[in-house]
């Protein structure tokens, strides 16, 4: 399965350990959030687009995270 990660803003960076995984394999994805210029409650969206090499199966897994930034 091929994967590509994306985010809703430039203040977050998704980091996938690799671009391809085997079916039923588990991986961890890290998301780095830069709070510079941010304050208060922040809700950010992250997604992974995926496509299988052998079939037409494809889709998008959506996630969100909420942080509170205190200055």
Q: What can you tell me about this protein's structure?
A:
With 71 residues, the chain is mainly β. 0% of the residues lie in helices and 54% in strands. It has no helices and five strands. The strands form two sheets. It has a three-stranded antiparallel sheet with strand order 1-4-5, with no helix packed on it. A two-stranded antiparallel ribbon has the order 2-3. Strand 4 and strand 5 form a beta hairpin. The radius of gyration is 14 Å and the shape is elongated. The termini are far apart. The mean pLDDT is 90.
Structural class: mainly beta
Beta percentage is over 45%
Globular, elongated, flat, extended or rod-shaped: what is the shape?
Answer: elongated
Distance between the first and last residues' Cα: 41 Å
Q: What's the Cα radius of gyration?
A: 14 Å
Output the helix-strand order. EEEEE
- If strands are numbered along the chain, what order do they take across the biggest sheet? 1-4-5
Q: What is the overall number of helices?
A: 0
Portion of residues within helices = under 10%
Largest sheet: 3 strands, antiparallel
Give the number of DSSP strands.
5
Average pLDDT level: 90
Runs with pLDDT <50, length 5+?
A: none
């Amino acid at each position: 399965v091929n994967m590509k990660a994306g985010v809703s803003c430039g203040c977050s960076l998704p980091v996938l350990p690799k671009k391809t995984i085997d079916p039923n394999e588990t991986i961890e994805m890290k998301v780095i959030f830069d709070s510079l210029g941010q304050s208060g409650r922040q809700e950010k969206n992250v997604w992974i687009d995926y496509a299988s090499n052998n079939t037409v199966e494809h889709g998008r897994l959506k996630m969100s995270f909420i942080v509170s930034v205190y200055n």
